[in-house]
Each structure stands twice: as C-alpha cells, then as structure tokens.
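USER:
Make up one protein:

ASSISTANT:
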Amino acid sequence: MRRVKRFTEKPDRARAEEFVASGNYAWNGGIFLWSARTLANAIREHCPAMAPLLERIAAAHGTPDFDRVFAELYPQCQNISIDYAVLEPRSAKGELKSEIYCVPADFAWNDIGSWAALHEHLTGGEMCNCFDATDPVSSTIDAEGNYVYAPGKVVALVGVNDLVVVDTGDCLLITTRERSQDVGKVVTDLKRAERNGLV
C-alpha cells in the first residue's frame, strides 16, 4: 500500500502521456474502499452544501417517507463525481495529511460507463454485432460492430456499422459507438424540454 501524493482526475491527453511516460503514477481504476463514516466526513468537509441534503436522505432510509424525501432532495445535490468532489481536493492537503492510499494491482478491469464500453465487454473487442434482446430472431446484412438493446423486438441491421441502438420502451436512442458517451447531453435536452418522466 502506498500513500498518494496527488490525485488528478481525467488529465488532458498531454498530461496523461507525461504521467505514463514517467512511470511514477498509478492509474485510478475507479475502485474505492472506505467506511461510511470516512466518506460522510469527507463530504461534510469538501461538499458542505450537499452534506445536509444527503444526511436527510439517509435519515429517511427505511421509512415510508424515503421515496418522497429522495425525489425532493437528491436533485438539489451537485452533479459531481466523487473524484472531483472529494479525492482531488483532499489530495491537495498533501501526502501525509490526505490519508489517501493506493493499492497497486494488476487485473483486467473495464469501467462500463457507456454503451460502447458494454459492446467491447460483451464482444471481447471483436468487430461483431451484439444483440441484447429477448427475441433471438434478428437480421444483419452488411453490418458490423453494432450494439442493439431491444428486448422483445426483432431488429434488422442493413448496411450500418458501429451503431448503438437502445430501445427502452418509451425512448429510442440511436447513436454511434464513438458518440455513445454523449447520452448525458440527451438527458440535459430532455430536462430542458421538461420531459422529466423520460430521464
């Protein structure tokens, strides 16, 4: 186990290449281990406006009021990852005061955070079509590298490559695998159009 001198979330390409070339940096796999008390105290320290909201949600857990309290308060929380909210500012305290440690490990890991990552995980990186559907009947003609999630539907792909098609019943997403991480922009657009029931 090693003390962390500084935590840098999502460095730009030039800085990431510098980190890798130096050989002195560990890559964060997004796997964290802490007690609930440690995390709660870190949020109180680094996100003081958000802490009371989360504490009220936690207090309602297991009560009949939980769904109402959660629906009311959670949207008021800042939309920020734990990396930016806690780890970066905490690491700024310095190696001896931040109390952040790294456990070097060597194992396969994929943070499946997009449809493209899911396609890669399911296909092993092969340029093949991947159907995540309950209906086994599908048709592909001159199509490859596509990911389709359409439970209960027959899907035909003709002359298309590297697409993501996701049918959730009330929404249909069609994008390229390359742009699949931009789905958050769709959520923003739907909220702007006051289609909150879809997000």
